[in-house]
Amino acid sequence: MLNLKQLLDTVKIQPQIRSEMYRKVMINQLQKRPYWCISRQRKWGVPIPVFYHHQTKEPLINQNIIDHLCAKLQENGSDFWWQLPQNQLLPPEYSDKAKDYIKGEDILDIWFDSGISWSYLFNDSQVADLYLEGVDQFTGWFQSSLITSTALRDRCPFKEILVHGFAVDEKGEKMSKSLGNVVDPVDVVLGGKAGQNAYGVDVLRWWVACHANQTTMASVSTNILNQSKDEVQKIRSILRFAISALSDYQYDEEDFQHTRLVDRYILHLLYQIHGKNSQILVLRI
């Protein structure tokens, strides 16, 4: 556990504004985690390559058996465990004892499957630049990847994680196809088949800027989209007035020297806001 915490301290967590909060959440989840039972009693999944003695129920599993099964996988495909007779699943040296054993029916926990995905891409010294997932993965993929990589090679599998929230409806429920409450961005822009309003791309962009980055849950509903539409219209009116008022303005650097102090201060604030917003738009990885 101590090693996991030390490794996690070296990881950058984005968005930066919630970095320390998310780090504490992840450490707290690790501390509360019980022992990991990696077997599951299901019909579909990655089988655990173990055999059991008919009478004693003593498990039979070793590196030689695993290597033999890996070769069978290459030869026969991923369904070999269910398709081949048992005497072919065990190495030749066990042929005279095959009848004394039955193959296990348990599968690996799916989080173990996904948790070792790093091993397919990297060697022992490589790590991913970025893992990206939702806030629910502190107890899922983020955690299982960290545990398996630390156990097998004593290093964190990622340099940085980016944690995103979820889009929720006006009741605060997570959007999902099964609930039928998903709002399609295309329908927001172009209008839906059921007669939903077409708000245009600027309203969608404004919703993302105002509602999709402030909390872990981004609410989207007809009321919020209508509010975003009104706000965009106000901005357009202000910009239209500013453009018309400045249509015949000719900039001269000498004019700046004669501006009032308060005007210079406002220009300075505008410069700072522009620089800050430009920096925020760049995701530093």
Q: Given the C-alpha coordinates, what overall shape results?
A: elongated
Give me the strand/helix succession: HEHEEEHHHEEHHEHEEHHEHHH
Distance between the termini: 27 Å
Work out the strand percent: 5-15%
For the sheet with most strands, the description reads: 3 strands, parallel
Strand order of the largest sheet: 1-8-7
Structural class call reads mainly alpha
Number of strands: 10
Based on CA atoms alone, the radius of gyration comes out at 29 Å
Mean pLDDT across every amino acid position: 87
Number of helices: 13
Helical proportion, percent range: 40-55%
The low-pLDDT segments are: none
Structure, explained:
46% of the residues lie in helices and 11% in strands. By secondary structure, the protein is mainly alpha-helical. Among the domains are: 39-108, no CATH class; 168-249, no CATH class. A 3-stranded parallel sheet has the order 1-8-7, covered by helices on one side. β7 (131-134), α8 and β8 (160-164) form a beta-alpha-beta unit. α10 (201-211) crosses α11 (222-245). The mean pLDDT is 87. It holds the Pfam family tRNA-synt_1. InterPro entries: aa-tRNA-synth_Ia, Ile-tRNA_ligase, Rossmann-like_a/b/a_fold. One of its GO terms (molecular function) is isoleucine-tRNA ligase activity.
